[in-house]
């Protein structure tokens, strides 16, 4: 099994292996190009990211945008992200239709071993899924392995470390459901 196959399967892998390093550098170059593009040329700027991300239809991402690989990110129709979106996509990130992200949202599928010796050698991840008609407020962090259901609102500053069921309003650190929609 290659290091890339291990990564995509959520198994411990060596992130500094040549193929993965090259993939990350390619993603970072495209993000850099996007982040420096003329902000008044919306279609041209988003066309840069379409080389990297799987975008179903209409999407708008404000600069700055950062990701590790890009090819693990699937974005549905009518997506909007405010400034400074970071997606650590060592595993699949699926974002549904009609999703809104506030500024400074961080989605991270990547994590590291607790053991300090293992942490020096490997990392691993778990996929993240965000349903349709979801709104993540500013400064929300979504951690590895989380599923956020359809029709959810996640309050600003929340740290989502467990699944959030459909039709929920959830807030806090750790993020908890406070009511149903």
UniProtKB/TrEMBL annotation:
GO terms for molecular function: galactoside O-acetyltransferase activity. The keyword Cell membrane does not apply. InterPro entries: Hexapep, LacA-like, Mac_dom, Trimer_LpxA-like_sf. Keywords: Acyltransferase, Repeat, Transferase. The keyword Repeat applies. Its EC number is 2.3.1.-. Residues 4-57 form the Maltose/galactoside acetyltransferase domain. Transmembrane segments: none annotated. Belongs to the transferase hexapeptide repeat family. PANTHER family: ACETYLTRANSFERASE YJL218W-RELATED, GALACTOSIDE O-ACETYLTRANSFERASE. This is Acetyltransferase. It comes from Aliivibrio fischeri.
């Amino acid at each position: 099994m290659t290091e890339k196959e291990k990564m995509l399967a959520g198994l411990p892998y060596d992130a500094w292996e040549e193929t993965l390093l090259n993939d990350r550098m390619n993603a970072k170059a495209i993000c850099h190009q996007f982040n420096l593009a003329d902000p008044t040329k919306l279609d041209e700027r988003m066309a840069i990211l379409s080389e990297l991300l799987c975008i179903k239809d209409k999407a708008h991402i404000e600069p700055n945008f950062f990701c590790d690989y890009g090819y693990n990110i699937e974005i549905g129709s009518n997506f909007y992200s405010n400034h400074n979106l970071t997606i650590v996509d060592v595993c699949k990130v699926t974002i549904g239709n009609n999703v809104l992200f506030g500024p400074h949202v961080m989605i991270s599928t990547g994590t590291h071993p607790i053991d300090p010796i293992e942490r020096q050698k490997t990392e691993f991840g778990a996929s993240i899924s965000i349903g349709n008609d979801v709104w993540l407020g500013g400064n929300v962090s979504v951690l590895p392995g989380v599923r956020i259901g359809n029709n959810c609102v996640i309050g600003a500053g929340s740290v989502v470390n467990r699944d959030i069921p459909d039709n929920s309003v959830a807030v806090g650190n750790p993020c908890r459901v406070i009511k149903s929609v």
